[in-house]
Design goal:
The protein is of the alpha/beta class and 443 residues long. The protein contains 16 helices and eight strands.
Length: 443
């Protein structure tokens, strides 16, 4: 007796059109993102098209925002891959409602509306607050390194810049001399596009000189922050300006020979790995403030300084700006420790609990007269309440940072430049929040 199967007719034509709503199961992430975006204020996107004028009809901003956010929420950050998935991925076809913007259109929309997309992060945080997923009882902060869109092979050390600058100047002078004597040398020399060769070397020389000047400017700022001056003759001085022994290794404003600058993303910096070593490559230092209630990212800031010590006031200000009030308690690891920051935040309405050593376990000998705020923090950490509170920090904030890299798969920025990268990081955290909210509200 032949086996009886359910009907399978791949070539069967449908008599009635499908409804997009039948393509995905109820509670799918795409529906949640669509409903969430519909509840947001997108007037800033529409304003760019309100002037009219002769042009092709643009795609609807709401559709484009939904497609981009869903792409980031599911690990598709490339506009080219996103455009291909609009034909292949059922969820994206539902969100786009049978619109198929090209990859260039998606890329241009993201570039044109990057700041508007970043601003949606605040609206999503406030939406999470309305849904009861943000309480602002305890907030934990942490930093994580993310790779820049920059090649380590298109960079140069300061020492090499100085040498290359001299070599290129000599080559340009040689080519100019050759151009002047071109008539005499024509019969003996092979054909050479001398003006083109000069232009190529001049462009290279300009790029190297600009990178060298940027390194020197950063070094001057760093030296000034250490109390140095251009006329210090390499001699360290006390507050009264008197020499106090020893000598600096380099003149004021002169970088180390090993100091590097990238030619592809000049705002990125060489970042140190958490386990030690500077083999991470060019990157940025991203910081998140995460609410304890549902692990929603309530503040997302980013910079190109590898240190975290001055970021705590920035994150607390961002939390206040995003939600209109301060958290009751803020937890941070030892990377955020700073006597100057403790002094700056002495009147903060938030209770600060900041580790002073590795995981808050190192016994420290603190001079209470010289570092009174640090000594007070040490005393707070030694109380049972302080220890119990600090133990929550790791699971509150480190998990979302891990989700960004391992769940969303976001480990390298698509854009270049500090302002653009800051906006893209907010877009990543926005997508993560919506994904988290969808999972929690479906329970």
């Amino acid at each position: 007796m032949p086996v009886s199967y359910l009907p399978y007719e791949p070539q069967q034509q449908r008599l009635l059109p499908d409804a997009l709503q039948d393509w995905l199961p109820e509670g799918h992430l795409a529906y949640f993102i669509s409903d969430s975006v519909d509840s947001l204020d997108l007037s800033a996107f529409h304003a760019r098209y309100a002037k009219g004028g002769p042009r092709n009809q643009p795609f609807h901003p709401a559709m484009m925002v939904k497609v981009l956010i869903y792409g980031y929420a599911t690990g598709t950050f490339s506009s080219r891959k996103l455009a291909a998935k609009l034909h292949e991925d059922v969820a994206l076809r539902v969100l786009a409602a049978e619109n198929y913007p090209a990859h260039r259109t998606l890329s241009d929309f993201r570039a044109l509306h990057l700041q508007e997309l970043a601003a949606l992060f605040v609206q999503v945080v406030r939406l999470a607050r309305e849904c009861g997923l943000v309480k602002l009882g305890t907030v934990a902060v942490d930093g994580t390194k993310l790779k820049a869109n920059a090649s380590r092979h298109k960079a140069m050390s300061y020492d090499r810049m100085v040498k290359a600058e001299g070599e290129l100047k000599a080559q340009i002078d040689g080519l100019l001399n050759r151009a002047r004597a071109a008539d005499d040398l024509e019969k003996n020399e092979p054909d050479l596009d001398v003006p083109g060769e000069i232009k190529r070397r001049e462009d290279r020389l300009k790029a190297i000189t600009e990178a060298k000047l940027r390194l020197e400017q950063r070094q001057r700022e760093a030296d000034a922050a250490r109390g140095r001056s251009a006329d210090d003759e390499r001699k360290p001085r006390d507050k009264d300006g008197k020499p106090k022994g020893g000598r600096y290794k380099r003149d004021f404003g002169v970088p180390k020979d090993s100091a590097q600058e990238s030619f592809t993303d000049t705002d990125s910096r060489i970042m140190k790995r958490s386990g030690g070593g500077y083999d991470y490559g060019y990157g940025y230092n991203a910081h998140t403030a995460v609410d304890e209630a549902a692990q929603i990212v309530v503040a997302a800031e980013l910079g190109n300084n590898a240190a975290d010590s001055d970021r705590l006031p920035v994150l607390l200000a961002a939390v206040k700006a995003n939600l209109g009030e301060d958290a009751l308690q803020v937890l941070a690891d030892a990377g955020f420790r700073s006597q100057a920051v403790f002094e700056q935040l002495k009147d903060s309405p938030s209770e600060l609990i900041v580790a002073l050593g590795r995981e808050g376990k190192q016994a420290l000998d603190i001079d209470a007269e010289q570092y009174p705020r640090t000594a007070a923090m040490d005393a707070r950490l030694k109380t049972p309440q302080g220890q119990a509170a600090y133990r929550k920090r790791k699971w509150i904030v480190e998990a979302p940072n891990g989700w960004i890299k391992s769940v969303l798969g976001f480990r390298q920025f698509s854009l270049r430049g500090l302002k653009k990268v800051q906006a893209e990081f907010k877009l990543v955290c926005l997508a993560l929040n919506l994904r988290r909210m969808s999972a929690l509200m479906a329970r």
